[in-house]
Write a structure and sequence with these properties.
By secondary structure, the protein is of the alpha+beta class. The protein contains 4 helices and 2 strands; from the N terminus they run αββααα. The chain has a two-stranded antiparallel ribbon. The model has no long low-confidence stretch (mean pLDDT 81). The radius of gyration is 23 Å and the shape is elongated. The chain has helices at 6-9, 47-69, 79-94, 99-102, and strands at residues 14-20, 23-29.
Length: 103
């Protein structure tokens, strides 16, 4: 008789049902920090949607890998311009008089 151990299958700190939108999903959460692996269970109505979700997860994981190895990445999607606009607005609010409008 074979006995399945937690070393061969893994274990999880929390398993619970949560609602995501109109759908009830099972959430598996590992609370320990020494855990180096994660499993993401995805669901979609068609193979194309599943492929898109898988590519999006893969892109996110690869972005995190790149940032942890080499922190010389620049933000994209106009993030630099948005941050610059926020800082200029903050600086302008501290500037008195008509000069504030020129900033």
């Amino acid at each position: 008789k074979a006995v399945v151990s937690t070393q061969s299958t893994g274990d999880c700190s929390i398993v619970r049902l949560e609602e995501v939108g109109d759908t009830t999903v099972v959430v598996f959460r590992q609370e320990r920090e020494e855990s180096a692996m994660s499993t993401i269970i995805i669901r979609g109505s068609t193979d194309n949607i599943m492929d898109d979700i898988e590519r999006a997860i893969d892109d996110g994981v690869n972005s995190v890998k790149v940032l942890t190895r080499d922190q010389r990445c620049l933000p994209g999607a106009a993030a630099t311009e948005i941050e610059l606009a926020k800082q200029l607005m903050s600086y302008a609010e501290q500037t008195p008089g008509m000069e504030q409008y020129a900033i």
